[in-house]
Amino acid sequence: MTLVNDSTTVPAEPTAARPPTVGEQLAARFPNAILGASTFRGDTTLTVAPTGLTDVARALRDELGFDHLSNLSSTDWSRYRGYAGKERFSTIYHFTSTRTGERIGLKVFAPGGDSPAVPSLAALWAGANWPEREVYDLMGIKFDGHPDLRRILLPNNWPNHPLRKDIPRGGETVPFSMIWEDEEFQSFGKQIVEAKSVQPVPPKQADANKHMILNMGPQHPSTHGVLRVVAELDGETVVAAYPDIGYLHSGFEKQGETIRYKDFLPYTDRMDYVSAMSNNLGYSLAVEKLMGVEIPPRAQVIRVICAELQRLASHLVWLGTHIMDAAGVSHALLMYTFREREQLSDIFELISGARLTISYIRPGGVWKDVPPSFVERVQDVLKAFPARIDEYERMITENPVWLGRARGVGKLTAEQCLSLGVTGPLLRASGVPFDYRKARPYSGYENYDFKVPVMTEGDTYARYLVRLEEMRQSLRIIDQALKNLPDGPVWTADRKMALPPRQELDTSMEALIHHFKLMTEGFVPPMGEVYHSVENPRGELGFYLVSDGTAVPYRLHVRAPSFHNLQATDTMARGSLIADLVLVIGTIDIVLGDVDR
Amino acid sequence: MDYLRNFFVNLARSWTAWIGGFLPDWGVNLVNYLVVGIILVLMPVIATLTLTWMERKVIGRIQNRIGPNRVGPWGIFQAFADAVKMLIKEDIVPSGADKPVFNLAPILIAGAAALLWAVVPFGRGMIGQNLNIGALYVVAVGSITTIAVIMAGWSSNNKFALLGAFRVVAQLLSYEIPMVLSIATVVLVTGTMRMGDIVERQVAPFIVVLPVAFITYLLAAAAETGRAPFDLLEADSEIVAGYFVEYSGLKFGWFYIAEYGNLFAIAAITTTLFLGGWRGPFVSVAPALGPFYFVIKSVAVIFVLMWIRGTWPRFRIDQMLAFAWKVLVPASLANLLWSAIVLQIGRQPEQLGPTIVQMILLLVGNVAILAVTGLLLGRAARRYAAQHGWAGA
Amino acid sequence: MLSQYAFIGIFAVIAFALPVIGLVLSWLIRPKKSNPAKTTTYECGMETIGDTWVQFKAQYYLYALIFVVFDVEAIFVFPWAVAYNKLGLYALVEMALFIAILLGGLLYAWRKKALEWH
């Protein structure tokens, strides 16, 4: 086994000078299971034998406090440069401690050649269910002991597992292959293309004889996109809710493996399109971590301002649509929140020229420095927003119907949240004070004075209050950032990513060649793999990047907060009424682009 | 001038006199019935054309929007454009539907919406028929709507529609009780079921004499017509459109017309029973002012309902039914009993409407009922909150 | 008296004729291009699973049963309310008893949790 990293070490005996690291502790406990350890850019990854995975994971959770399964992904190593390992596939698990913010990765090389299998972690973390299904769907790795191993994003009759390296991008036959000249287009109103649709299979657990099986979605007013929830109903009571996703699956991960690092940025806009800035930030930070570059302070502060403005905008959309779920389209709040969001979109347009798919924060800094009027415009927001948030509160917070509707609905305990991998406001409303901005600060968040709102009730109303308070805290962060906005460049000076200045090109041949290489080839990270996560408005947004030393990512995985949070639907909705199911979907605050990617 | 003062009644008299010149008595009656009938039947349609525009404008303004402003000045012809669209739109009947029932439901609901208008007094002497069972007639005709809605929901063979129909059974029936009881209170106090006479005997508007009955009636009527926050029958975010999800074209249009016709009708009945109907300044001098007062009061009631729609979330079905049975029914029963007791005090034979003393006593009792209900509701809300771990709030 | 109901009768005929006329008119001028895809049941774009007309909860009808009791009561209340002025104290006592029995029924249903949503 070789691992291509900058420092591959066998875990050493702990010295007396420092306490043993987590890796060392595990290696001491499971000498047969831990095969090796590596550290790259501060990420520790242990290689674990498949047979020992469950034990190591259990020890991590129960004894070492790594209670949150952040990320679950996989890699096909068959085309990796210089790879000499025996197994073609590996899965990787990233665990985070919600108390200390520490993180550790476990990597498992899956035995079985082209039909690999590893043990499932679904028994330990209920939230491993969907990510494992995703890995099975896209990579074809089987999970032994998984309760319901089916495809999740792609249709059941899909011929291959597309993330495998031998599957070409776009190589499958797509039924929609007509051109405008075809005669069939003359007769609209008929079925245009004879596409063979897959019969919607009722979930096998559902009992269609005793209960009513109701499809909510994909075309339903309250599913916030093309989500389908199959609800099993007894009268009005939800016996079970089975979310069915994948309608918006666009293969962004596969696409990411074919284009350069910097070219993938626009795709991140289109995942969680309600908070594009946060996605830009998360991806940029992951790439910068892989490259090992420093970002100048001005760019960092601008990034923080933008990310928090985006959090405001995202929470505004959530608030408006959530109340709309509870009240119907006639409710006034939706338009109010969109009026406010308009102001934020204007600011984004001012700095980047785009309003929705922004691509402003880029690997290496931000696209361009902000125009002079930016500060003034953000100050307008700071002036106007506190009163407006108060106005929403007056309108809704004490409304008896809203109290009755939101309280006690969609309850999640802290244990359930951690088990399901739920992050963001949902986790914090259940009493776990876990926020990546505090736990693993990035972009200088440690320099700001802000609070992480936490409630213990864990219901829809608590999440509502948490998000409202988060908006206020975001305003505080923006205020501080604006006051301390330093001067200076907004692009990294590190020549690994930065273009040489124009005047140097006239005098230095090396600079010219470097410029040419950067422009034509793109920047080239060293071989290695990183996982970096940020606090998206919806929760933990993580990017897992594997580099093989070229300008194109070898593997790019997105840990989408909505995808993981949506898993909690059934837990939250079981036993409640249809009206509550609608609120539950709303309170998760999903973006389907984020779920399906 | 004198003719103008009571313009509408005088116009009717002149018309009767004119056709009486060449028609026998029964012919005059028949023609009059037909003319009045056609005018009243068109009321739901007129209500829809005006109220949809008003609602879109009002909700638009509440939502910080302009509302329709393209079709005609201020968009007032928007509703006509919609009507034309409904008329020429293709009618789609789902293949699994129970066709006769499916087709009958919109006819029934639109007819029922029109029937209500027979007993609405627009002004002194301006009423379709001052039936001696007017108040009961309102209740009876209102029930046809329930049947039509169940028919629509059941026959569509659609799960959303069926859920809507289920909810109808529970919701419309539950709210009929408090509605009937609050009407009965008014009937008790006035001693008549004739809608015209109820107005005549309302010396002071009953909203200030019987606030409990007024609130109960307004809430129950909002629930009966499926207005927010009781719009569970057609809750767009839950069951898409509820019982009429499969309807299209003019069949959908008739549901729509019935909805707005009923909205105007309940506002009119609220006005009649609680807001003094066509009463207002100078009406005794110029009865022709009556209909204007009547419409203004009705529109005010409608505006309040629209306001609620723009700012309140929707009830959940269990909460809504509990509200009907555990709050409105006991409160209105208590109100009925108290009214009966008060009317025994200083009772005079052949009394027309309550005396001043009785009105004051009624008000005192109503305020007491309101206070007790409020206290109990607050306690129940706190208990509910505590159940879900919200003890502090 | 009877003429009043004659009016109601004529009015009812007109009231139910209007929607029929409207539908006939619409039938004359609207397009008629049906196809199987159009007439499928709407269920959010998916084919419906299982039967729509399934057994469903009797919960909804519990309310209907309680309703019948109270609605019959209402029928009795109306004539009493109209004639109340002429009847005197005796009517008050009688109706108070009647309502008390009903309230007892309501309390019973309440206690039996028939008013709770299960």
Unreliable residue runs of chain C: none
Radius of gyration of chain B: 22 Å
Query: Kindly state the mean pLDDT of chain B as a whole number?
Result: 83
Would you count the extended β strands of chain B for me? 0
Taken from the alpha-carbon principal axes, the silhouette of chain C is: flat
Quick recap of the structure?
Chain B is an all-alpha fold.
Molecular structure report:
The complex is a heterotrimer of chains A (597), B (393) and C (118). Chain A is 37% helix and 16% strand. With 597 residues, chain A is an alpha+beta fold. Chain A has a 6-stranded mixed sheet with strand order 1-2-3-6-5-4, with helices on one face. A 3-stranded antiparallel sheet of chain A has the order 9-10-11. Chain A is globular and about 75 Å long. Residues 1-12 and 187-195 of chain A have low confidence and may be disordered. Chain B is built from 15 helices and no strands. Chain B is globular, with a radius of gyration of 22 Å. With 393 residues, chain B is an all-alpha fold. In chain B, 57% of the residues are buried. The mean pLDDT of chain C is 78. Chain C has 3 helices and no strands. The chains are: A alpha+beta (597), B mainly alpha (393), C mainly alpha (118). Chains in contact: A-B, A-C, B-C. At the B-C interface, helix 3, helix 4, helix 5, helix 6 and helix 7 of B face helix 1, helix 2 and helix 3 of C.
Pick out its properties.
heterotrimer, A: 597 residues, alpha+beta, Beta Polymerase, domain 2, Cytochrome-c3 Hydrogenase, chain B, 2 domains, 6-stranded mixed beta sheet, 3-stranded antiparallel beta sheet, 20 helices, 16 strands, globular, disordered N terminus, B: 393 residues, mainly alpha, 70% helix
Topology:
The complex is a heterotrimer of chains A (597), B (393) and C (118).
Chain A lengths: L7 E2 L12 H8 L4 E7 L2 E6 L4 H10 L5 E9 L12 E8 L6 E8 L6 E3 L9 H11 L2 E3 L67 E5 L11 E7 L2 E8 L7 H5 L8 H5 L6 H16 L5 H31 L5 H20 L8 E2 L2 E2 L6 H25 L2 H7 L7 H7 L4 H5 L6 H4 L20 H24 L18 H6 L1 H12 L7 E9 L2 E9 L7 E5 L1 H6 L2 H5 L4 H11 L3 H5 L1
Parallel strand pairs in A: 3-6, 7-8
Antiparallel strand pairs in A: 1-2, 2-3, 4-5, 5-6, 9-10, 10-11, 12-13, 14-15, 15-16
Helix pairs in contact in A: 6-7, 7-8, 7-14, 7-19, 8-9, 9-14
Chain B lengths: L1 H4 L1 H14 L4 H38 L15 H11 L10 H17 L18 H22 L3 H32 L4 H6 L5 H4 L1 H14 L11 H4 L9 H26 L15 H22 L5 H28 L11 H32 L6
Chain C lengths: L1 H28 L29 H29 L1 H23 L7
Helix pairs in contact in C: 2-3
